Amino acid sequence: xxxxxxxxxxxxxxxxxxxxxxxxxxxxxxxxxxxxxxxxxxxxxxxxxxxxxxxxxxxxxxxxxxxxxxxxxxxxxxxxxxxxxxxxxxxxxxxxxxxxxxxxxxxxxxxxxxxxxxxxxxxxxxxxxxxxxxxxxxxxxxxxxxxxxxxxxxxxxxxxxxxxxxxxxxxxxxxxxxxxxxxxxxxxxxxxxxxxxxxxxxxxxxxxxxxxxxxxxxxxxxxxxxxxxxxxxxxxxxxxxxxxxxxxxxxxxxxxxxxxxxxxxxxxxxxxx
Amino acid sequence: xxxxxxxxxxxxxxxxxxxxxxxxxxxxxxxxxxxxxxxxxxxxxxxxxxxxxxxxxxxxxxxxxxxxxxxxxxxxxxxxxxxxxxxxxxxxxxxxxxxxxxxxxxxxxxxxxxxxxxxxxxxxxxxxxxxxxxxxxxxxxxxxxxxxxxxxxxxxxxxxxxxxxxxxxxxxxxxxxxxxxxxxxxxxxxxxxxxxxxxxxxxxxxxxxxxxxxxxxxxxxxxxxxxxxxxxxxxxxxxxxxxxxxxxxxxxxxxxxxxxxxxxxxxxxxxxx
Amino acid sequence: xxxxxxxxxxxxxxxxxxxxxxxxxxxxxxxxxxxxxxxxxxxxxxxxxxxxxxxxxxxxxxxxxxxxxxxxxxxxxxxxxxxxxxxxxxxxxxxxxxxxxxxxxxxxxxxxxxxxxxxxxxxxxxxxxxxxxxxxxxxxxxxxxxxxxxxxxxxxxxxxxxxxxxxxxxxxxxxxxxxxxxxxxxxxxxxxxxxxxxxxxxxxxxxxxxxxxxxxxxxxxxxxxxxxxxxxxxxxxxxxxxxxxxxxxxxxxxxxxxxxxxxxxxxxxxxxx
Lengths: 273, 273, 273
Hints:
Chains A, B, C: Its EC number is 2.7.1.50. Three copies of one chain form a homotrimer. Chain A is about 50% helix and about 15% strand. In chain A, strands 2-1-3-4-5-6-7-8-9 form a nine-stranded mixed β-sheet, sandwiched between helices. By secondary structure, the first copy, chain A, is an alpha/beta fold. The two termini of chain A are about 15 Å apart. The first copy, chain A, has one domain: UDP-N-acetylmuramoyl-L-alanine:D-glutamate ligase. The interface of A and B includes residues 33 and 34 of A.
């Protein structure tokens, strides 16, 4: 199934509308192209309904939000939900400011999202409405480890139940869950946290996977997470001794663009809990 | 003449004002530097007249437009036209929303542009005011092929006549025409469509070429198109087996920065119709 | 001391709030991660006080400013100054428009910055309120050379005295001074000027160095400048014959991410005047 999700993106070329931050937007666009999708970025309220209507998915990322783009997120979100498009929220920096937390919560209240993808601190900020964040990065205390794994699985399943959606909590160990099942994914590398935007890239990728696999949303989100993590491992294997975080970013996107079903099948490391 | 256009950019270092989208802006800046020009980005209406006045060219790209930047585009466009600067419009996503189509058409109505550069779908949306777009990419049906080449050449020449400007329609085959002559350019690779922003990059490059070759605008636009396509071919030749679309983008910009007259002369593939 | 500044960034992981332009923002984020800091970008006035409060440094860069973000810069600047955070101003394009010059001057009037970092033309525009700029690049006439070095050192020390801050004037020769001492730094390469954003990247890096070395601000700013220049030299040494400005950018950021105390100590070239 996991490999089939990859195949479906490459065959269906879903068009993804992204309302996303200006820090990592270029990488998000290139990652979506790399996986077989087509990106379009548009955040003007006057056009977002029309733009999202011609797409199959909407990826809302609240990094570098402002009052103008928040309005566009809300309008686009409602339209995409009405059209049953694949709808993903990346609550970048939730917990770091009231504006971010409140915007994410009000988007979730107004529109049904198929999936919420964030780090531990961001998801805690939304679910528990209390957070200890380190800006846009997870707090050092917020790490999924072997010791707290059971507890974290319960947390994401509960939050998935509460929101009636898929919750993808990414970090050293990635948890992708609905209220019944949780994929515990151990692909990825520590070095990925030294690059800006790996979370944003994964959100773009996940939205594309979801849009091309509407019948299997949980598998689609899990597959996207494995692709990203595995690309991180493959990219690292090609890093020359004089290469650092900037080249690593390129190697990761490259690996996504070259990823095939066989490589994914051989490299995916997960269990279902 | 084609090689001379390249030389003139490297010798004159034109300063180019870009009002462009935030997705590919960094690549546009690096491409302009790569070809020998200097970029400046500014989209605040309070400063665009002043900024454009110190430049030699203005590159307007409507991707990620908003009401604030549309106003800046109009004000800057009028000023640049008044000063007889090289003026290029890239109607990104025309046809994908009314706002984009209308903005492009109203810019064209208010200001004389020296060149319009877009893909087939975008140019059809403007010329025929009916379009079948795939977001910011050309529709699959909108491809210049050996079969429809004559018809497409007539289309671009007619549109160039109607708008009294140069029309550059880029895709698998690139057509760069005024109302008399059409350069049919076959440089480039299929893989270039797997990178975000190759169109935006070409617009930035073309504006720089135009600014440094005001006496030969058609040749300048054709030369820029050949440079971009040839850089795509050279870049591909340096792609390692483990490299994909992200590294390819770097290789293309690299090849533009290393492009010399001899390489361009040897590699340019075109006929004039 | 220089090497200790590097070590302190890597050990303290300062969180840096950046209000910066959308052209080079991704590179700034990756450079800050490369040196050991964490970036957060936020420019909405409703959240900037809260965001900057959780950080240790604020990097304000006025490239692609607009009326909305200028307001955010002012509000964030005051809050960061009140909290005694490391505060840096990069007056991109000062002298190229009245809006940029006036914005930089009014930020300086309202808030005390620890350091102003710009090229010769930008700093002259602010200090002398008369300038000959080439857009966002220094004018060809504005170069620090062996011939005018004494005069330039006096200029930066005087301006540092006037503003009661550190002044970093970067170009072929970099001068980093307070009113008493001037580091004359000769690291760096000519090719760095062929990449967009090396100045912006240095500002991000310098703000991180300052935030992690509050007791030694002048040394911190000098060290950041040496790291950037040395990374330019190291990056160039890894440039393949077919690589140009785009790959060079990656090599530079890579070199920053791999920079260690020993390499910095061996490679730093400066005298104190």
